[in-house]
Amino acid sequence: MYFELRHLRTIRAIHDCGGLARAADMLNMTQSALSHQVKGLEEQAGVELFVRRSKPLKLSAAGQRMLRLADKVLPEVEALEDEFRALRAGKTGRLHITLECHACFDWLFPVLEKFRHAWPDVDVDIRAGLAFDAFPALDREEVDLVITSNPTDLPGVVFNPLFDYHPTLVASSANPLAGKAAISAEDLRDQMLITYPVSRDKLDVFTELLTPAKVEPRGHRQAELTAVILMLVGSNRGVSVLPDWVLRGVRDKPDYALRPLAGNPSKRLYAATRTEDATQPYMAHFLRLGRTEAVKLQRG
């Protein structure tokens, strides 16, 4: 036996309306067309689905069984149709994020707090564990957006610019580097360098300063949290290079000295997305929020 969704809708409409005439109006079809559909359905089933001598028209035991099926299936189908309509309208979707920028949580959380109010039906998650496999994860559709400062030429991926920043050295005011106007690679040769626990090719201090000059610091220590890095620096246990906007909270504190790197290099942060997702309304709004929040952070 072959059922279509229209058969289930027909059974439910006739039961709700109590007759063919009103059910035909509800289904936007003629009464004769509806009668023909019911006759064909009963021929397929091999049983009568209605007690025709009753007024109003009632379902037989077999018809009641089919109605129970309709009550199970049709709400699921209608919910799926609503979801697809919302997806087409850009009202729902998924925004799973991973970050190659360890410092960016300070920027991301305020953005997501505003985003969730504007797009409550978008499923948002941070997949921090995929940071070391970010772009393959984007390709596998395990994440939908990668925060990175290292754009590469990848098919099917668009790098949406967010904001520019300057990698900046932060040291204790008691550190000799506090007396420097700008920091060169050689200045870090005898320093303990404190960084996030990520690979060197993701750290500005290496990509912009140390690696090109082939200079190694005296020591290299890692810390997960920005607050811990700043605590260690403030205690003169090492120096660090962080984005200028991350350092806004210690800019005016006497324990800290902030110095530009030689040449004052500028970097840009990007949100990498799959090309087909870049024009989604909720994605476009997230990018706008990201740029706006960055301006607030940089102004301090």
Separation, N- and C-terminal Cα atoms: 69 Å
Mean pLDDT: 88
How helix-rich are the residues, as a percent range?
Answer: 40-55%
Number of strands: 12
Secondary-structure element order, N to C = HHHEEHEHEHEEEEHEHEEEH
Major pleated sheet: 5 strands, mixed
Rg is: 31 Å
Number of helices: 9
What does the model show?
The protein is of the alpha/beta class. Helices cover 40% and strands 20% of the residues. The strands form 4 sheets. It has a 5-stranded mixed β-sheet. A hairpin with a 6-residue loop joins strand 1 and strand 2 (58-59). It is rod-shaped and about 100 Å long.
Task: Summarize the model shown.
By secondary structure, this protein is α/β, with parallel strands linked by helices.
Properties at a glance:
300 residues; alpha/beta; three-stranded antiparallel beta sheet; 40% helix; rod-shaped
Present the secondary structure layout.
Layout lengths: L4 H13 L2 H7 L4 H15 L4 E2 L6 E2 L1 H28 L4 E7 L5 H14 L3 E5 L7 H6 L5 E4 L8 E9 L1 E6 L19 E4 L8 H10 L5 E4 L3 H9 L5 E4 L12 E5 L6 E8 L6 H19 L1
Parallel strand pairs: 3-4, 3-5, 8-9
Antiparallel strand pairs: 1-2, 5-12, 6-12, 7-10, 7-11
